[in-house]
Design brief:
Elements (H helix, E strand, L loop, with lengths): L7 E7 L3 E8 L5 E8 L25 H19 L6 E8 L4 E4 L29 H14 L16 H11 L1 H6 L2 E4 H10 L6 H7 L10 H7 L7 H4 L9 E4 L2 H7 L6 E3 L4 H8 L7 E6 L3 E7 L10 E4 L7 E7 L3 H11 L2 H10 L3 H10 L9 E3 L17 E3 L7 H25 L6 E5 L6 H11 L3 E4 L4 H13 L6 H8 L2 E6 L3 H22 L5 H27 L7
Parallel strand pairs: 1-4, 4-8, 9-15, 15-16
Antiparallel strand pairs: 1-2, 2-3, 5-6, 7-8, 9-10, 10-12, 11-12, 13-14, 16-17
């Protein structure tokens, strides 16, 4: 390859609402061009695209064609924006939300794309934030505790409703026909690589963190049968040799080359998770360096040379982030989603008018007004559980709470209280790691929320430690491109590629000591509420959720009865 045609890689990042492709120079990580494709269907949480009954509460599905369209539209768009030629691309890598899983046939065809399953919700991919499998997750935990299974401690003593086994068990219990037809049960992170290469592969990241793969094995058939007699064979649906992170999964097939505009035979790296792959982009791979990927939710990842049992962590997996180290994960199920909720529900019309007149968003307006307040000036305290709690309680049937509301409470008060609550949640996670003997020496932030400087400074003050930031707009896509460079042989390993291609701004935020001190007693109040509602002091949140679910079910049944008995036939037009 000549000097005027530098080697590049393409990172493809599949998010919750959109997918993006990024073209990156292999020598130094320069971002040469990118393109974004918004999913046509977004998150399917009301009804299937073809109509039909309303989906139950806590459901979240996606459409595989939306993911293919990222390959069809975003990849050629990024190539065009960068001005590079397909022959310059030496490798491709993808990352995906997790645990986003789907049932398929033996050849990888999603069941939802078969006509006989098009109207069956359980045949569709379940997005990471599908939380309707909480009863199944609770059952898995109870049976594992009864059996004294050692792997449970590797997940902080809890299994999330977001993960593979809970979601699959829900399918079996609620639609056995779909379960029986699912030859393969696969993370979207691996399925998209299957589409690119034509060969099924599995990665150790999703297997370990979302698939209960520990010490070379999945849960055995005896344990699975204790959950449901017909579940004993489930592991066969996911079992496949694991390919190390940063390794080639295969080469781009002819159909995928035609779809993307890339050359057939281009190296494709093994799949990965959006949060975990960002560690390479942020140069946050050393032991003790925690990375928080902050967007609609937040995922916290960190490497360590020691293995410890951290209460409420999402998992500790050997080689889960980079080969040779123990990779830890924790997270918060709702962050940016909570702020979006606040804008939708608390900001009156005049705020939108003011923001539009000044050429800023309502988020920016609320942040500006909130930043003018002193610590504690709004008199509010919130729990950041609008989408449940991932860490450290691992309970997606918890719900949000705001204490201290009065007739004088303003939208910016609520907005600031929610930002602070998510920062308190992160501090709770950091303290859980340190109390378990896994020190956090550095804290780096990445993701879309970096654009809000008030939010970032608030996190810095509440954590009372410097916050580094990823100095790249497309962190996961850059991380994927780094992995592609390793898979293509441009670097010997992920850490070497990260050092050359990653982007980190150290000490982007430093704590204000006065504000940090003022936050300490409020954080103590947060922990009191956290433990009261999350650790058994009051079960009211669970009772209210159950009441809502029962009422919704009755309402759907009543609606169906009315429709079937009283609706006159439509005129024959």
């Amino acid at each position: 390859m000549t000097t005027d045609m530098p080697a590049v890689t393409v990172g493809i990042d599949f998010g919750t609402l959109s997918g993006r492709a990024l073209v990156v120079a292999v020598d130094d990580g320069r971002e040469l061009g990118s393109a974004v494709h918004e999913y046509a269907h977004g998150v399917v949480d009301r009804a299937l695209p073809g109509g039909g009954p309303e989906l139950p509460a806590d459901w979240a599905l996606q459409i595989p064609q939306d993911w293919r369209d990222v390959l069809r539209l975003a990849v050629p768009g990024a190539l065009a924006a960068s001005g590079v030629r397909p022959e310059q691309v030496i490798g491709v890598a993808t990352d995906f939300t997790a645990c986003t899983v789907l049932p398929t046939t033996w050849d990888g065809t999603p069941l939802c794309e078969l006509p006989r399953f098009a109207e069956r919700p359980h045949a569709y991919p379940k997005l990471w934030r599908h939380h309707a499998a909480q009863p199944e997750a609770d059952l898995i935990v109870r049976r594992a505790e009864e059996a004294g299974l050692p792997w449970l401690a590797r997940y902080g003593g809890r299994i999330s409703s977001e993960w593979q086994y809970a979601k699959a068990l829900q399918v079996l219990r609620e639609d056995p026909g779909v379960y029986a037809a699912s030859d393969r049960w696969i993370e979207a992170a691996d399925w998209i690589v299957w589409q690119l290469t034509g060969e099924e592969t599995r990665n150790p990241c999703t297997a370990g963190y979302k698939g209960i793969y520990q010490d070379g094995a999945y849960p055995d058939a005896e344990f699975l049968a204790s959950l449901h007699p017909d579940f004993a064979d489930f592991t066969a649906r996911i079992d496949h040799p694991l390919t190390p992170l940063g390794s080639p999964a295969g080469r781009l097939g002819a159909a995928a080359a035609a779809l993307t505009g890339l050359r057939e035979g281009t190296v494709v790296a093994v799949g990965n998770v959006d949060a975990h792959v960002t560690g390479a982009a942020a140069q946050a791979l050393d032991p003790g360096h925690m990375l928080a990927i902050m967007g609609t939710s937040t995922c916290h990842i960190m490497n360590s040379d020691v293995m410890a049992e951290v209460p409420g962590m999402c998992g500790v997996v050997r080689d889960g982030i980079v080969p040779g180290l123990w990779g830890y994960e924790a997270g918060q199920s709702g962050v940016g989603d909570i702020f979006a909720w606040a804008v939708r529900t608390t900001a009156p019309y005049e705020y939108a008018v003011e923001a539009r007149g000044r050429g800023i968003s309502v988020h920016e307006l609320l942040s500006e007004k909130a930043a003018a307040q002193p610590v504690g000036g709004h008199g509010l305290l919130a729990l950041d559980w609008h989408s449940g709690n991932r860490s450290v309680l691992v309970d997606h049937h918890l719900s949000g709470l705001i204490v201290g509301l009065t007739l004088d409470t303003r939208p910016e008060d609520v907005y600031r209280a929610l930002i602070e609550a998510t920062a308190y949640g992160t501090r709770t996670i950091v303290e859980a790691f340190e109390q378990a003997g896994v020190p956090v020496t550095d804290f780096t932030a990445a993701g879309g929320l970096l654009k809000n400087s008030f939010l970032m400074q608030t996190y810095c003050d509440i954590l009372n430690r410097p916050v580094h930031v990823l100095a790249a707009e497309q962190g996961p896509a850059l991380g994927a491109a780094i992995h592609a460079a390793v898979a293509a042989g441009a670097y010997p390993d992920i850490r070497a590629a990260s050092a050359a291609m990653g982007r980190l701004e150290r000490h982007a935020y430093t704590p204000d000591r006065a504000r940090a001190a003022a936050y300490d007693p409020i954080y103590a109040e947060y922990r009191a509420l956290h433990d009261h509602f999350g650790r058994g002091g009051s079960d009211v949140m669970h009772r209210l959720r159950a009441l809502r679910a029962d009422t919704s079910a009755d309402s759907r049944a009543d609606s169906s009865a009315v429709t079937s008995t009283t609706t006159p036939p439509a005129p024959n037009c």
